[in-house]
Design a protein that fits this description.
By secondary structure, the protein is of the alpha/beta class. The chain is 47% helix and 13% strand. It binds S-adenosylmethionine.
């Protein structure tokens, strides 16, 4: 079941549990109860249930904020259409968080410098960022002298259009393509900053398609059960780990 469905189900279960608790409480303390107490309890319950089901920490934040956002929206004089607009914007920005379990978070400047260094050291010619976000890495890699082609693919619609617009005056390519449909045969430097979920499958694709002696670099998420050829630990706030895999070519 997609994570978004689990999250919504938990919200629904929490409402039922809270209704039961309110019913029980009414035997001792006469209602009505304070709104903030009720919303706070709902928030607490959803986070508790989500943690119990092993949801990632960023989901816990979403679960926490969700009841409060609904409550504030109900209180506000805004038209309910705004709720729809906000929901639509969230889907357009974070589509892949729901579909692929890959949320949108961005590579920092220090990591980009390191990526460029990897490109320079290996005289990389064709670079691709799989799920390029707003395209910052794709643009930055044009500063690496050996790179003749710098490409990004991105399937979240709004994110793609922002990347495309911001890259309009750079010699780069931004495509609205699914990373699983891209043939990696010509890319000798492939970068991904995704999540633990797709890494095993992505590794199969990378091995199958990338040219011999190319480099696959994954930010923060290693390929399970595969020893990287190198690990760069960066001196940034989050101690970013870059996992470097040299492609050995097909047998
Ligand atoms: C963690 S962000 C990284 C963004 C950018 N690469 C960076 O490092 O700054 C992952 C991006 O991958 C995109 N993404 C996830 N699955 C994808 C897919 N199957 N095809 C294309 N893009 C995808 C998401 O929309 C998101 O923008």
């Amino acid at each position: 079941m997609p994570r978004i469905a689990v999250a919504l189900l938990i919200q629904a279960v929490a409402v039922v549990v809270l209704a039961g608790l309110v019913y029980l409480a009414s035997f001792w303390i006469a209602p009505p109860y304070n709104d903030l107490l009720l919303v706070g309890s709902l928030s607490f319950l959803t986070v508790f249930l989500s943690a119990l089901l092993g949801m990632a920490s960023w989901w816990l934040w979403i679960q926490f904020v969700f009841p409060w956002s609904l409550y504030l929206l109900l209180l506000s004089p805004l038209s309910p259409w705004w709720g729809l607009v906000i929901a639509l914007l969230i889907v357009l920005l974070f589509k892949n968080a729901f579909k692929e379990q890959v949320p949108l978070y961005l590579t920092n400047a220090k990591t980009r410098q390191a990526l460029a260094m990897i490109g320079r050291q290996n005289h990389s010619r064709c670079f691709i960022d799989l799920g390029c976000g707003f395209g910052e890495n794709v643009r930055f890699m044009t500063t690496v002298e050996s790179v003749v082609r710098s490409v990004g693919v991105e399937t979240s619609p709004l994110v793609f259009w922002i990347a495309k617009w911001r890259s309009r005056s750079y010699p780069v390519e931004i495509h609205p393509d699914d990373l699983w449909q891209v043939n990696l045969a010509e890319y000798d430097l492939v970068y991904a900053f995704l999540s633990p979920k797709p890494m095993a499958t992505l590794w199969l694709k990378v091995q199958e398609e990338m040219p011999e002696n190319g480099w696959f670099v994954s930010n923060s998420f290693h390929v399970p059960d595969v020893e990287p050829d190198d690990i760069w630990v960066l001196n940034d706030r989050r101690q970013t780990h870059l996992y470097l895999y040299k492609i050995g070519g097909k047998d």
